[in-house]
Design goal:
The structure is a single chain. The protein is mainly α and 164 residues long. The protein contains seven helices and two strands. Strands 1-2 form a two-stranded parallel ribbon.
């Protein structure tokens, strides 16, 4: 019987986590930049829901209740794979982009940032809404996440001066 896609992904993740321990011991990684959907979102959807009154389920238990005793915006009652990956690399947990953006902390951006948004799609949200007949789609598509990354890239790299 051939292994399922899920078991292959899980096995691949275990290899990454195991090899990450080797690299972390050598100090090769100083931060994690994350893109994705609910499997990696550490709180961006919670922020977007708070300003649009959509997707409020992320703001109440059980979401995050076993993580730090409060709703974290994670689609889990505890840690996510990205949290375990950061821990295995000896890095701090990756804060959501909107937490860092709200605090204005440039140092936090250099320590890693998570652009993932629960419910995001690879296609632009207008494309999905046009085919979904009235579905509420969070505007956190991969295109939007990459735009946030592009805006914060000078701060991540430590080059905040404009060149013209």
């Amino acid at each position: 019987m051939a292994p399922s896609t899920t078991s292959r992904i899980f096995a691949g993740l275990l290899v990454v986590l195991w090899s990450g321990r080797l690299y972390a011991a050598n100090g090769c990684f100083s931060s994690i930049i994350s893109f994705g959907d609910s499997i990696a979102d550490t709180g961006n959807a919670k922020y977007l829901a708070s300003i649009s009154d959509d997707v409020q389920f992320l703001c109440v238990p059980p979401y995050g209740q076993n993580f730090i005793g409060q709703s974290t915006g994670r689609c889990s009652n505890g840690r996510l794979i990205i949290d375990f990956l950061a821990e295995s690399l000896g890095l701090p947990l990756i804060p959501p982009y909107f937490d860092i953006k709200g605090s204005g902390s440039v140092v936090a951006l250099r320590q890693g940032v998570n652009y993932a948004v629960a419910g995001s799609t690879a296609m632009n949200s207008s494309f999905v809404e046009a085919r979904c007949n009235g579905c509420v789609v969070i505007n956190g598509s991969l295109e939007v996440q990459l735009a946030w990354f592009k805006q914060s890239l000078p701060f991540i790299c430590g080059n905040t001066t404009s060149s013209g």
